[in-house]
Amino acid sequence: MNHRRQPMRALAAQVLQGVENGQSLTQCLPAALNQLPPAERPELQALCYGTCRWFHRLDDELGQRLNKPLRTPDRVIHHLMLVALFQLRYSQQATYAVLNETVEACRALGKPNLTGLVNGVLRSAERGGAPEPATDAARFSHPQWMVEKLRHNWPDDWQAILEANNAQAPMTLRVNALRFSREDYLGHLADAGIAAHATTFAPQGIQLATPVPVDRLPWFADGAASVQDEAAQLCTTLLDLAPGQRVLDACAAPGGKTCAILEACGELDEVVAIDASAERLPRVQENLDRLDLQATLQQADAAATDQWWDGRPFDRILLDVPCSASGVIRRHPDIKLLRRESDIVPLASIQLGLLEAMWSILKPGGRLVYATCSVFPQENHRIIQRFLKQQPVATLGTPEAAWGRAMTAGRQLLPDSHSHDGFFYAVLEKPEL
Fold first, then answer.
1. Confidence class of residue 3 from pLDDT cuts 50, 70 and 90?
2. pLDDT tens sequence across 369-415
3. In angstroms, what CA-CA distances link 116 with 100, 103, 121, 129?
4. Which domain holds residue 17?
5. DSSP H helical segments within 273-403, as ranges?
6. How many Å apart are CA 122 and CA 124, to the nearest integer?
7. Which residues make Cβ contacts (< 8 Å) with residue 37, sequence separation at least 6?
8. From CA 420, how far away is CA 418, in angstroms rounded?
């Protein structure tokens, strides 16, 4: 049996085919990475993420260069050519290497009859340069429905949102307040030769000038800091945490916000973290262990309170609901291929149901923070408006905040190319009995 490993571009094409078939990069990339030596894995990851980021523009160009679409059994070669076009347009890779190695990958994928087509298309692309995008979807490299929805929802900001989505996201840290002040940790980073600056809004946030492997970060393995976007860190500033409180993180995986809550107030009575995914909960425990923090973990559907809740109400609840993830596309460019416009209404129904369930287990006098990593109003302030109509006793909190923009309910952060992701927060307060 031939165990010769696949060329990197062949692996990238197969990963992209998996994404087109509905798998996220998180699901289908690890197996491909494991086929390469560790030194080569970052390049494969960059190929897959970069091709997803520019998929709609690259796909438009390839469509202009093909006389007719490839047959379905040959679809992997379509993805192989997209990977090559990504390298020609957006990388420093030598052109001859892209052409030669893509043809080799075509053979490795069992399609030697298509090497002539692949070679011809790529040589034409090399000579002719990138053509003018034929549609807005190609120009902005997003699905057409998303371009239109953003244009409608954010008439003054839609182009900036699309451009931010196509930018490389910065690497942002949350300094463990139980271990270091932000100023002290900035000093340790400087001593390690890592350029960084304090974030504008998150009190424990630090943004690196250039991403680095976490093993280069001082005392990272010992819990000095965590990787977390600035927008996601803001949850602790809204929860109004105090010693003795019982706190619920209702959709907790992978655990960044659970840990942020525990770091922000060291004398909480209990933090309960639940998630519907049994596969993702171990990651929460790993983060807790690295930071030497304690929480009660449960695998459960947050909305089904009769199946997991012990009857003791919570003083504070963080509800970071499942959403379109339209505010974090720059970190997860496969969202452009995976998400459908038809997903939004069902997601909104889930979000409202979760909000109603969490309200029922919030202590009188308690506070609930609703969060999404979405920029679509259907999932954000409109959910809160719908909820307030159903729960007239609920009070909309109006915390003083210098970030984002005030909506009719809650505050919206739009993705910023130079700092935070897109995020929405709303604060709901339950009156005392």
1. very low
2. 999 999 999 999 999 999 999 998 999 998 888 999 999 999 999 99
3. 12, 8, 9, 20
4. 8-140
5. 281-291, 305-308, 335-338, 344-360, 381-390
6. 5
7. none
8. 7
- Residues 6 or more apart whose CB falls under 8 angstroms from that of 77 comprise 13, 70, 106, 109, 111, 114, 117, 118
Alpha helices (runs of H) in 277-368, residue ranges in sequence order: 281-291, 305-308, 335-338, 344-360
Same structural domain, 398 and 413: yes
pLDDT tens, position by position, 289-332: 999 999 999 999 999 999 999 999 999 999 999 999 999 999 99
Q: How many domains does the chain have?
A: 3
For residue 4, what pLDDT band results from cuts at 50, 70 and 90?
Answer: low
Phi, psi angle pair for 299, to nearest 5°? -90, 115
Measured CA to CA, the distance from residue 109 to residue 83 in angstroms comes to 14
Q: Is 361 in contact with 407 (CB distance < 8 Å)?
A: no
Tokens found for residue 157: 């900001």
Instruction: Answer yes or no: do 192 and 128 share one domain.
Output: no
The CATH number covering residue 110 comes to 1.10.940.10
How confident is the model at residue 2, as a pLDDT? 39
Indicate if 241 and 377 belong to the same structural domain. Answer: yes
In contact, 256 and 232? CB cutoff 8 Å: yes
| Predicted confidence (pLDDT) per residue in 84-136, tens digit | 999 999 999 899 999 999 999 999 999 999 999 999 999 999 998 889 998 99
Would you state the pLDDT for residue 20?
Answer: 95
Segment 100-104 long-range contacts (CB within 8 Å, at least 24 positions apart): 101/7, 101/8, 101/9, 102/9, 104/7
Residues 200, 313, single domain; the answer is no
Query: Do both 203 and 246 map to the same domain?
Result: no
For residue 394, CA distances in Å to 287, 304, 335, 366, 390 come to 34, 21, 34, 11, 9
Catalytic residues, by residue number, are: 373
pLDDT, position 207: 98
Q: Tokens for 49?
A: 């993420």
> CA-to-CA distance for 45 and 33, rounded, in angstroms?
8
pTM of the predicted model over 0.85: yes
Of the residues 163, 196, 227, the one at which a domain ends:
227
Is there a domain that residue 162 lies in? no
Largest CA distance in the chain: 76
Count Cβ neighbours within 10 Å for each residue of 405-426 and write b for 16 or more, e otherwise.
eebebbbbbbbbeebbbbbbbb
Tokens found for residue 357: 């369930």
Continuous segment of H or E residues that includes residue 279: none
